[in-house]
TrEMBL record:
UniProt xrefs under CDD domains: Ubl_UBLCP1
Species per Swiss-Prot/TrEMBL record: Owenia fusiformis
Keywords: Hydrolase, Magnesium, Metal-binding, Nucleus, Protein phosphatase
Name listed for the protein in its UniProt record: Ubiquitin-like domain-containing CTD phosphatase 1
PROSITE patterns cross-referenced by the UniProt entry: FCP1 (PS50969), UBIQUITIN_2 (PS50053)
Annotated Gene3D superfamilies: HAD superfamily/HAD-like (3.40.50.1000), Phosphatidylinositol 3-kinase Catalytic Subunit, Chain A, domain 1 (3.10.20.90)
Cofactor dependency: Mg(2+)
Catalytic activity from the UniProt record: O-phospho-L-seryl-[protein] + H2O = L-seryl-[protein] + phosphate; O-phospho-L-threonyl-[protein] + H2O = L-threonyl-[protein] + phosphate
EC number(s) reported in the record: 3.1.3.16
Highest classification ranks of the organism: Eukaryota, Metazoa, Spiralia, Lophotrochozoa, Annelida
GO biological process: regulation of proteasome assembly
A Pfam family this chain is assigned to: NIF
Region (Disordered): 311-336
């Protein structure tokens, strides 16, 4: 695997893109370009890349393009304008399929060397801004935003009208046992604006440890669905050794985001059509109880989060608090 350096000319300025390798794809290159230009990958048109006589698809590896060192290409694309109103969805974003029916044989990518290399690169290069220092002995809760805690497609006068019911009560309760992290597949300025609009970043009953954006994600290839972007928890675990699969749980409305760590992900029911559903949606109330029930476990990997609604905990303490090692109590969760 060798490093590839590309010079991208855009809007009268040349940008040197160095954090790509021969095993990366065109989509990986677009994400690297986004870091320097702010132009989202879906809004980029790269001129000068050819594969078999035509413009390469996003899943084509850079090694196949046979680029020379410091190859110069041009980009056409428009950077996101500053947020005028966080609650109004962008007009030019297409509707997307929220999830894939990922079968067991399609999620066996978590130990692939090329993807672990990408995770290592994110651990090295992605800068995490600590908002509040992680607390000793706490578990980790990683939360998505769109359709998980916020209906980002509906329109309202204020963002709080689109907030999932019981959000602040949920976060307040979770904060007792969990450090809370936000991870959204959007840019950081969108994340910060939504957290401010929802009153999350200023709430005094709980605190966010840090937030991650789309730049911390990686691309993987599945035989059925091609190249997709995912949220590898290994990026967090590599940067913060106190967290691991044993004490981490992630809520997202899109199951494929868990593909690098399926054991740690819980697919939350998407919150849509807020005006119609906010009086009946109690997902966060039920999930709050689940988080509390599992908080004292020594190892979350024994859990099957797909069956979280059927979980019945034993009244037990952490192993370190037990009077002897001869106890045979075990949680009544169903293993995966």
């Amino acid at each position: 695997m060798s490093q590839i350096c590309v010079i991208v000319k855009w809007s009268g300025t040349e940008y040197k893109i160095e954090d790509t390798s021969s095993t990366d794809t065109v989509l990986d290159l677009k994400h690297a370009i986004r870091k320097q230009t702010g132009v989202l990958p879906e809004r980029q048109k790269l001129l000068g890349l050819k594969y078999k006589g035509k413009v390469p698809d996003d899943d084509v590896e850079l090694s196949l393009l046979k680029m020379k060192p410091n190859t110069k290409i041009m980009m056409m694309g428009t950077r996101e304008e500053a947020l005028a109103d966080v609650i109004e969805p962008p007009k030019d974003l297409p509707d997307v399929v929220n999830d894939f029916d990922i079968e067991e044989d399609e999620i066996l990518v978590e130990n692939r060397e090329e993807y672990l290399t990408k995770v290592d690169r994110r651990i090295k290069d992605y800068e995490v801004k600590i908002l509040n220092e992680p607390r000793e002995g706490k578990n980790l809760l990683v939360l998505d935003i769109d359709y998980t805690i916020f209906d980002h497609r509906s329109v309202a006068e204020t963002g709080r009208e689109l907030m999932r019911p019981y959000l602040h009560e949920f976060l307040t309760a979770a904060y007792e046992d969990y450090d809370i992290v936000i991870w959204s597949a959007t840019g950081m300025k969108w994340i910060e604006a939504k957290m401010k609009e929802l009153g999350v970043s200023s709430n005094t009953n709980y605190k966010l440890s840090f937030m991650l954006d789309s730049s911390a994600m990686i691309t993987v290839h599945t035989p059925k669905y091609g190249v997709i972007e995912v949220k590898p928890l290994g990026v967090i675990w590599g940067k913060f050794p106190q967290y691991s699969p044993k004490n981490t749980i992630m809520f997202d409305d899109i199951r494929r985001n868990f593909i690098m760590n399926p054991q740690s992900g819980l697919k939350i029911r998407p919150f849509k059509q807020a005006h119609s559903n906010r009086d009946t949606d109690r997902e966060l109330v039920k999930l709050s109880k689940y988080l509390s029930d599992i908080a004292t476990l020594d190892d979350f990997t024994i859990l099957n989060h797909r069956k979280w609604e059927r979980y019945k905990p034993h009244k037990q303490k952490r192993t370190s608090d037990k009077p002897s090692s001869s106890s045979t109590d075990t949680p009544t969760s169903e293993p995966t």
